[in-house]
Queue: 4 jobs
Job 1
Amino acid sequence: MPETTTTRPGMMSAVGWLLAPAADEAPRAHAVGATALRILLGLMWLYNVSWKRAPDFGKSADNGLYHFTAYAVSHPVFPPYSWVVEHLVLPNFTPFGWLVLVLETALAVLLLTGSWVRLAAALGIVQSVAIGLSVAYAPNEWPWSYWLMIGAHLILLVSAGGRILATDAVRAGRTTGRVLGQVWGGLTMLVGLSSAVRSFGDPLATRGPDLGSSDLSVSLGAYNMVGGLVLVVAGALLVLAARSGVRRLAVAAAVLSALAGLSLHAQLGFSDPFLGGTPTSAAYLFCLAVVGAWLGRSRAHAGVAPPDHVDSAST
């Protein structure tokens, strides 16, 4: 009788699990709670990118990201980390600032759209640890903030946070994503219309009115009238694509949103952004691009319907 061998889970299986859709079978209450936590964390990172400003990220004025990163040296939490910040990070701060901006933008986009939720949760743990090691001992900080951030991402890591309103559910074949597209499209049209109306007195402002509250640290970005109209068009394309199943409409929404988001990063800190936005605005636009991209390639939009038994919790 041939000898059988048992393969132990290794690094490849761990990576595969990390990259797999977080859309496992789970009680609906669990899926709803995990989705709420995912969106809450996504909103946190979405607001958090607003003050990561190129080109020097606060180095010349000793404010912003540079100021808070330097706390790792002046108020050290873990001396080896302080040494790294002092000798490697601060002398090369511009590329570090771009790295933080890209990472936190990715966290906002992945969590809000429910894309690669486990990977996003793991990255969120890493970034939460890094922030805590920088500022936990700084004046007026509460160290438990960072313990709770780590814990929240850890819970999300092992949850079914990609079952509801998530592209992970589309990736897993549990839904076509039509509800996801309509929700994002409808919300975006409202955001765009609000921005356009509120910008009427100064339609080309370099920074349009904020859609949120700095006191509550919640924002969906800032847009002038041009930015608002871009959102209206992108949102309408998503809604039409979700309702009609026409892939090209979703792809058009994705391309328009991605180009608008990239244009903000090309201008912010270097010239006046013609969309009147912020890094948070760019992150929101990238969310639309991701949703549009997945809607454009989902099976329903390729002419193949998902199984009839698809769980309604996966929309």
Job 2
Amino acid sequence: MTVPPAADAYFPQHGDVTYDVEHYDLVLDYQVESNHLAGRATLTCRARQGTSRLALDLHGLRIGKVTVDGTTPAKFRHRAGRLHLQLAEPLLQGQAFEIVVTYSGRPTTVPGVGGGAGWEELTDGALVAAQPDGAPAWFPCNDRPSSKATYRVTIATPPAYTTVANGTLVDRRQTASRVVWEYEQAQPMATYLATLQIGRYATWRLEGSPVPMVVHAPARLIEAANRSLAEQPAMMEAFVGYFGPYPFPVYSVVVTDDALEIPLESQTLSTFGSNHLTLGWQDQRLIAHELAHQWFGNAVTVRHWSDIWLHEGFACYAEWLWSEASGRESAGQHAASHWRRLAALPQDLVLTDPTPAGMFDDRVYKRGALTLHAVRLLLGDERFFAALRSWVAAHRYGSVSTGELVSHLAGAAGRQGPALRRALGQWLYEPGLPVLAHKGTAGLGARR
């Protein structure tokens, strides 16, 4: 069976560029004790080109039945995490169609360069941490960041557990032995941002935020969570000022009873481990970092993974902005400190092509943030933050590239646009670390 072309050079075994999914409707049942998931996924799709073959991503789960527009494909094969379909009738460019897949099994992580991502069992519950390639661990999908869809997730879980998914809780109903939770994510979302969080959680709201904020945490951690998240409403207010309106109807935080290696962002919510509830800067910066991803990564998403600095560099710079806004160190002080650290490291990473193994290299985060600070020094605060707000507004719920950002910033720079382009060329496309200029200078990217 012929397979569709790869969608992303970093993950050639994921995604299919011949079609887009416009909506996922997932109906699930999860047994916590046995870690067993049963699901029925209905994918509302549209062909981007004429084709008689399709591919979906689904890892480690058994396929029960597959239909395309109610008809069984002429052939289908599920192997190595890919479900290949040979259609009975070819699709035309622009044609709408529906794929329905029933499946079941014991979900786990998808092996990858970072050690695996996807479904993870907790001591008492489960979570999904899918970045970058873990979404196929729990539902069949077109797993590429450039395909964004709306979602409805309905999941039945044991009554002792709270279940949290992306978006807005639209229904919760009790059956004889289960609680059925229904969530709607009305704003388009990339597959890797879809999540489920299942645990014995109390739920409450944080007051004082311009956007509704909800916290889900074990009862024993309520006091610690409130103390650690006390600044989050002020962070939200500051980021709305810097980046523009919060792009979703609600922001939620889940705190697991388990310790986690790192926090993670998902669209409309972030997840922290019980070990992240301190008032120290290392944890407070992470709270700011994950919140900033709602603008940069969630609302505005990279088209290809090689541009991941457009997520992580912006979120890292948001940490420095919050530090500045909250009376801690200024963004300039953070920039100078991290420039010195990067200068002492090997100069062998290109920000716009860090390689799959280097996607989450700390240099991507810090060099990305330094790039933004350099632009801020050239443009000045008023033009810089106006450019960030207009960038988000122009691309909200869409997919972007570094080239588009460079053009956007050059337009904001006006007569300084050519100088900004030259400087950004060094920060973005060359491995050597440029000198960080002083405020008000045009030598934005002068070489060391």
Job 3
Amino acid sequence: MTTSSVPAVPGGVALVTADVDAARTFYAALLGWTYAESASGTTAVAGGEPAAELHSGAGPARWWTVFTVDDPEAVRAAAVRAGARLDGDDVHDPLGGHFRLRAAATAVVPGPGRPCWYEYMTTVPGDVERFYTDALALEASVPPGAPDDSYALLTAGGRPVAGRLALPAPLDTLLPAGWMVYFAVTDPDGVAEQAQQLGGRLLVPPRDVLTGRVAAIADPAGAVFTVIRPASTPA
């Protein structure tokens, strides 16, 4: 058996970028973030609640999904057995994605300007499902009534905690494979326009999907994220 016995649940995000000050300015203007400093780095705050961690680091700017789990070492070991590569606290899966683990961390509270969903983007959905079942004990299931299996929910203990999207053309050339964070906003169209004015790039223009209205954006350093007005939120 290679499966991790306890599911890991996505509970937050961390941005690693070469210029934290520039990122602070961009996201403050775009998502209304303020910031709190501590010995561990910069925490973005939205609506009085922690929204994200910001860290300085070399290499391409990227958003990391952070999973909370009781025993990170056991999950790391399961991930390695399933084909992952470790780099300190970072776990690189064999399919182009990456994530981090935190022991018993408090999950981010969904809300405006804060992460509200996590989704794995891929062109090899079966391989993704096998890895994350073995490594993080997440089970995949196609939502009832779905027309096909291009989208699946990833569940922990029977509860949906993330999604898996098989990228169709041309999204497979526009969006990177791996974990995507969705930030809740009230006006995706306005946020998409403002992001470009602030130096970001619009990768996928605002559009309606079953879960709401979304737009995919790269910040000025290239870190990719999605904004969403959930379907249950009035326009």
Job 4
Amino acid sequence: MSEADGQGRRAFVTLVTNADYAMGATALVHSIERSGTTAEIVILHTGGVAGESLAPLAARGCRLIPVQHLPLSEGFNSRHSRGAIHAGQPFTKGRKPLFHTPLDNFCKLRLWELTEYERCLFIDADALVLKTIDRLFDYPEFSAAPNVYEGLVDFQRLNSGVFVARPSHATFAAMLERLDQANVTWPRTDQSFLQAFFPDWHGLPVYMNMLQYVWFALPDLWHWPSIGVLHFQYEKPWERDHPKVEQLQPLIDLWHAFYQNRDIPDIASLPGPQEPRR
């Protein structure tokens, strides 16, 4: 399909690489639907996802698109394996679940192949949409929020959990050429690469990708009415007994309400991180 055929079509896009992220995507889809959007919802999924895990997403009318890992060199794959990446850049702020596979992250770039759409808004499957955010489709490529969860220095780095893109075969080809350079390693995988590929990236408001650690690390920044996307970085809300359950319990409870498609409280009236739970 030519890029001209995508004139005017818009889609929310997420990536599912295993059964756990299929659960996450189910909650995300419920939240997108509740936002009242008219955009389509696309699920990119890799070979690591069984059909029964995708069934709830198909039942919601999502468009399911199978994708493969990018055609990258053996050297690239070796440098970006779980052992290599996590040994070189160990997680010191939080814990990634065992299912986290760095090479899967680069499958996000397949979004640029979706030229049947004029604009795409990518959201990680471990996130929730808390209000209408369709205005983000009108932001320029490449727009992303900063990786803020601990301090002001975080504003220097983007977080690819939410970004705005214009699909293009030419852009995708240029990405593949830039990505797989001899002896080059992208320590934050797709995030490092996208920041290098789009050095003048346009900053979305931090509230369009509010990372869950802000809840306890930067509580003065938390403002429920402003949050468009809540992103569960590091520990996931569907995990049992993860190390920060007690600190993050109100956010975990909210995720489960969306996942089960229960009544959702008025987000703007929820207590903040320093207020007692009602």
